[in-house]
């Protein structure tokens, strides 16, 4: 069950590293400096991608880490009972199963996909929320060993003797997948099964390319892809509401001490993106290029 800690903790990314279509044009950068509005020293905001082939921290990111005194991620990934809390939240409520959500034909297609790529029958996982079944397949979209920027940032925190803190709890994050109808999540899983992940692989490759270019504005329209209905129809729950909740917390951490914030790159841009919301709150947010 290793995949849970690797990307359930920041699960909203592969498809959530991508944002809304009404984003303003922003510089090509995944690293931003936060200053002003009463801050004695600047903090930094870094857009991560939770699963990738190369999680090497660039020199500008390392410099920002050296200039800050604490690291804040979406979740406190150093929390001792994090994995157990995740496991308690992956199952559907009210005794629902995948068979309640899809036709017999689609159920068999999902079973064939899981058997092929994971060596597990869907009967062993049919009480899990469909989004988590999709997440279990994320490593199969890659042609390389899976890496995580969050894991690299945790290594830095440990080396520098800094505590990892979080902007939200795992309960906050995973509650979203009860808010998004299970039927909508199941539709995305069925689509993946019918073409044996072909479309998902092409989208993942596209996202990796755009992220490498640090062109956060170019990632905008990907979030509106109707092939991912559980994402495109519920951006308010997946991104907007969470971003708004984070702004006062970011302010508190940054005023406490210079802070390095690492959140999914999908949260940076857009009208309700963290960059724009911080600016509206009175902070100066500048790209580090």
* Residues in helix, %: 40-55%
Which sequence of SSEs, written as H and E, runs from N to C? HEEHEHHHHEHHHHHEHE
Q: How large a portion of the residues is in β-strands, by DSSP E? A: 5-15%
User: Describe the biggest sheet?
Assistant: 6 strands, mixed
Shape: elongated
The pLDDT mean sits at 87
- The separation of the N and C termini measures 38 Å
Radius of gyration: 19 Å
Describe the structure.
The protein is 44% helix and 10% strand. It is α/β, with parallel strands linked by helices and 289 residues long. It has one domain (2-80, 141-172, 196-287). Helix 3 packs parallel to helix 7 and helix 5 runs parallel beside helix 8 (182-194). It is elongated and about 60 Å long.
Gist of the model:
The protein is α/β, with parallel strands linked by helices. It has one domain (2-80, 141-172, 196-287).
Which characteristics define this entry?
289 residues, alpha/beta, six-stranded mixed sheet, disordered N terminus
Show the helix and strand layout.
Blueprint: H1 2-8, E1 31-35, E2 43-48, H2 59-66, E3 70-73, H3 82-89, H4 104-118, H5 130-136, H6 149-159, E4 164-166, H7 170-179, H8 182-194, H9 198-212, H10 229-232, H11 235-256, E5 259-264, H12 274-280, E6 284-287
Parallel strand pairs: 2-5, 3-4, 3-5
Antiparallel strand pairs: 1-2, 1-6
Helix pairs in contact: 3-7, 4-8, 5-8
């Amino acid at each position: 069950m290793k995949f849970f800690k690797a990307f359930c903790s920041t699960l909203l990314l592969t498809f959530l590293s991508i944002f809304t279509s009404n984003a303003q044009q922003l510089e090509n950068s995944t690293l931003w400096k936060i200053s002003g509005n009463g801050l004695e020293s600047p903090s930094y905001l870094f857009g991560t991608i939770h699963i990738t082939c190369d999680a090497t921290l660039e020199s500008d990111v390392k410099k920002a880490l050296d200039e800050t005194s604490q690291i804040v991620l979406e979740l406190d990934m150093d929390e001792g009972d994090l994995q157990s809390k995740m496991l308690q939240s992956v199952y559907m409520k009210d005794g629902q199963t995948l068979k309640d959500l899809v036709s017999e034909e689609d159920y068999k297609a999902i079973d064939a996909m899981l058997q092929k790529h994971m060596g597990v029958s869907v009967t062993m996982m049919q009480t899990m929320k469909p989004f988590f079944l999709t997440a279990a397949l994320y490593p199969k979209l890659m042609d390389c060993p899976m890496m995580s920027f969050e894991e690299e940032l945790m290594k830095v925190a440990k080396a520098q003797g800094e505590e990892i803190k979080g902007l939200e709890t795992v309960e906050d994050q995973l509650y979203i997948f009860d808010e998004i109808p299970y039927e909508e999540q199941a539709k995305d899983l069925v689509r993946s099964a019918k073409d044996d992940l072909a479309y998902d692989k092409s989208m993942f490759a596209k996202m990796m390319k755009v992220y490498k270019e640090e062109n956060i504005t170019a990632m905008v329209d990907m979030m509106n892809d109707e092939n991912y209905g559980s994402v495109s129809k519920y951006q308010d729950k997946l991104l907007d509401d969470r971003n708004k909740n984070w702004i006062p917390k970011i302010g508190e951490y940054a005023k406490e001490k210079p802070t390095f914030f690492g959140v999914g790159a999908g949260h940076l841009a857009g009208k309700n993106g963290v960059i724009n919301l911080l600016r509206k709150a009175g902070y100066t947010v500048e790209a580090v290029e």
